[in-house]
Please model this.
Amino acid sequence: MKYKVQDSDEVVDGEILEKLSQDEYKIKIKDNEYVVKILHTDSNVMEFVLNNEFHSVRYVDSQTSEMNFIVDGSSMSVNMNSHLDDIVFKNSGGSDSSSGQSTLRSQIPGKVVSIDVEDGAEVKKGDTVCTLESMKMQVAVKAQKDGIVKGIKIKGSVEAILGALENLATGEVGVNVLHSGVGGINESDITLANASGALIIGFNVRANHQAREMARQDDVEIRYYSIIYDLTDDLKKALSGMLAPTLKENLLGYAEIREVFHVSKVGKVAGCIVTEGMVKRGAKVRLVRDEVVIHEGELSQLKRFKDDAKEVKGGIECGMAFANYQDIQIGDMIECFEIEEIARAL
Model:
């Protein structure tokens, strides 16, 4: 297959060298070899890992022979000059087994849009067995030789999804898959999810009527997806919410103790002046004596004269009392700060 990237005025030869597994291939581009693993593909989107790096290609539109894509967020126009049917036919033949049977596999990933034969049907070499759609192009998968069709198997997306979910795991959080399978969502799936407190993910499938009713009654969440990236993106956000937040200290201000008063039922109250920034009721404080922190806690009271105050700004006098702490002296400095919780993301 040859294609031309419009901005570079360069024709690049590409070739499938070897099929390593069901969705993994060794390819050659411009004399360089790469390993590519297909995660998901349909008529508009292809997601794959190339040499351990994730990439996403989204089809936009086409004009005559030019096709427009979004590749990893960047726009690209491609002029195609390919004979995909011939390429697929050349590379799709499986090796013969001792029984004389052979396996016909497509060498490009795609969505099966039609199956043109049935089990037991006689085919001639070159007859179309099924048709794939990949990035808006339909490609025929053809028989390699005369024979009888013994069975047709179309691999689903379960393994690709499980692999993508496994890659989301960290040392702190991860997705625990209790059950996976093919076919629609049924009552047994709802029962399992309800018993374990899990949600159900349907990829290009739906729940039957009875399962939907059970889900509503048992308050079981079902999420439907048709693109793996959307699925993993949503779960990544959910897992991010489970991560312990990063704690950031924000300094509010300083106050100097000028007097110490004894108040009944309260204990010692510091008569202060705010020297920098502000102090706030309910904020955290440190008591500093001779440049050494001797206590860290919270303010129990903050007053202006006899009235409670929410905050006191620089240059203003106030009264402060510490929660469960009495060892305060004239000349001590009070450092007032808040702890901000910052959500983390995967």
